[in-house]
Specification:
With about 60 residues, this protein is mainly α. The chain has one domain. It is built from two helices and no strands. The radius of gyration is 17 Å and the shape is rod-shaped. The termini are far apart. The model has no long low-confidence stretch (mean pLDDT about 85).
Length: about 60
């Protein structure tokens, strides 16, 4: 997912260099949304892993 965010960021930068403002803004917005989804899923994954690791052995 982080790879997709970086891909859209690169597309936004290239589009901005060539003067395509609408495409650059859209790609940057998509990259931002995907990045924040990645961060939320990462935090949830870390919390779940920490909770699972502290359970007593059976």
């Amino acid at each position: 997912m982080l790879g997709w965010a970086l891909t859209f960021l690169i597309i936004a930068i290239v589009a901005a260099v060539f003067g395509f403002g609408g495409i650059a803004g859209t790609a940057a917005g998509i990259a931002k949304i995907i990045f924040f989804v990645f961060v939320v899923l990462l935090v949830i994954s870390l919390i779940m892993n920490a909770l699972r690791g502290k359970s007593p052995p059976l």
